[in-house]
Design brief:
Shape: globular
Distance between the termini: 41 Å
Structural class: mainly beta
Number of helices: 0
Length: 124
Amino acid sequence: QVQLVESGGGLVQAGGSLRLSCAASGRTFTNYAMGWFRQAPGKQREFVAAYSWTGVSTNYADSVRGRFTISRDNAKNTVYLQMNSLKLEDTAVYYCAADPFGSGSGQPSQYNYWGQGTQVTVSS
């Protein structure tokens, strides 16, 4: 069983940066694909970024490509999302997710484990 806990959210000015962390416990996730998703009020949960061990690849939504970076530290069982040049539209609850099959897709249905989310609010 895998538990995921996000942290690092908060209030930041537009143009600023935050780094989100996702700590995993219960199992190691060396071979898992890890993803970040977000959900703003009244909107569907949307894909942000993913890291897949298969092909050693990363995947980003068009809206964040070039601004956000996903990384992982297997020794700490932790995944990070570095968010730079934040925009007002980045405001959302951010969720960490794990896919044991390592697809690294942008589809929420492919992920089996989810954290409870951390709020990111970007102000002008």
